[in-house]
Amino acid sequence: MKIFVINPGSTSTKFSVSDGQAMIWNTTVHHPADELAGFNHPNEQLDYRNRAMHRAIEEAGLDISEFDAVIGRGGLLRPTPGGVYEVDEYIIHDLVHAEMEHVCNLGALLADILAKEAGCRSFIADPEVVDEFIPEARLSGLPMLERRSVFHALNGKAVARLYAREIGRRYDELNLIVVHMGGGISVAAHRMGKVVDVNNALNGDGPYAPERAGTLPADQFAELCFSGKYTLREIKKMINGRGGLAAHLGTNDTRLIEQKALAGEEPYKGVLEGMLYGTAREIGARSVALRGKVDAIIITGGIAHSKYCVDRIVEWAGFIGPVVVRPGEDEMFSLAFNAACALTGELPISIYDPDGTRAAARESAGTPEEVPAEASLEPAMA
């Protein structure tokens, strides 16, 4: 089995080949800032990143005819249940016209291009917009502001499934709280294989993180927005990019902040402690979604490498359930793992159908699905 994996990031694109068990080749293509500066929208980078992908394949001497599948990261589709999805015209259409802009939206587009050339299948798995909320979790205090499920679904689902396999159980038999700690922090309640509640770790709520603001005092934030001092773009950057540790301390380097915290240096120690306390508090909130029956709390992501940070969270939240630490975020492994499980039948291959219209069309005898018009790669108009 050979699976080609594509993971577009903001300044690089990672590629790898897996045999379904381990990575047998990988590379990272870095994209210089001056080259990226010429693009106004992530969609405009498709041809640029496609050329980079083909150069990497050619330089490595890979034979694409040997690929059994290509899987790409992302993207920011409409809310959809977790799982492995075969890339089709519906996914391509919604990524080209996605409401949220991010280069991860190119993952499926690149996978589709390469798979067609290789004559194999193309997939995505557990995109960031996995939505399996219970109805109660979806509501906020204003009817026009619905809570959104935006989190580290790919890594979170993968570590949960791997933990279940390690202990000889099925993922859909367990109640887990998965804490992903990276540039953003997501705390997800996995109830019998479904993420029934999670904070919006990109730009919504939850604990503040290295570069994201998390939940903010509503009245004070409203005053800030209408103070006349900031543009909408600047406000959004405060929420995602320059919030959290970066706002308080001028840096999002958690290793540097931890060093200063260990030395007792303020405000570093206090601000870091605040982030860890907020994370533990969120774990407590997720335990409610599981009615207190928590089989394990899994801490993952880059910050999970920090014994200091993990120990502090355990001090506050360890009474809720046993804590398992899975440091790092191996998105390449998670993607390959999902594709391998789909090819072997361990995981079903889902059909992207966020509004249920495709299922309805199939149920109507003799009524074919309406295929979206061929997607243009021009950015969607706001």
Would you kindly provide a written description of the structure presented here, covering whatever features stand out?
The strands form 2 sheets. Strands 3-2-1-4-6-5-12 form a 7-stranded mixed β-sheet, sandwiched between helices. Strands 9-8-7-10-11 form a 5-stranded mixed β-sheet, sandwiched between helices. α2 crosses α4 (106-118), α6 (153-166) crosses α13 and α11 crosses α12. The model is unreliable at 376-382 (pLDDT under 50). The chain folds into 2 domains: 1-147 and 330-382, 2-Layer Sandwich (Nucleotidyltransferase, domain 5); 153-328, 2-Layer Sandwich (Nucleotidyltransferase, domain 5), CATH 3.30.420. The protein is an alpha/beta fold and 382 residues long. The N and C termini lie far apart (42 Å). A hairpin with a 3-residue loop joins β1 and β2. It has 14 helices and 12 strands.
